[in-house]
Write a structure and sequence with these properties.
By secondary structure, the chain is mainly β. It has no helices and 7 strands. It has one domain: Thrombin, subunit H, CATH 2.40.10.
Length: about 90
């Protein structure tokens, strides 16, 4: 699958709970977060040390009880990162 802005193969895709956001991960060590309806890039995550093998979006509640969506990813080096869908590490 070819997704603009990835420099190598896309290795994983995940939608958030209402399918308004698509997250792509690649062999280029990048995670891209997209607006699913406009197909525009919202932000990139450049924290991985190797090709990304696993990607998911989890739902959690913050301290005030509000829904928080977390992007969780693991690369080939075993490095795991998580960020909120808002882009905060």
């Amino acid at each position: 699958m070819e997704i603009p802005s990835h420099l190598a193969d896309v290795t994983a895709l995940a939608y958030n709970h209402d399918h308004s956001v698509l997250v792509s991960a690649g062999a280029d060590y990048l995670i891209n977060v997209w607006n699913a309806s406009t197909k525009s890039l919202l932000f990139e995550i450049r924290e991985h040390l190797g090709p990304i093998n696993h990607l998911c979006i989890l739902e959690d509640q913050d301290e005030e009880g509000n829904l928080e969506e977390l992007i969780v990813s693991i690369d080939a080096e075993g490095y795991m990162i998580y960020v909120t869908l808002d882009g905060y590490i």
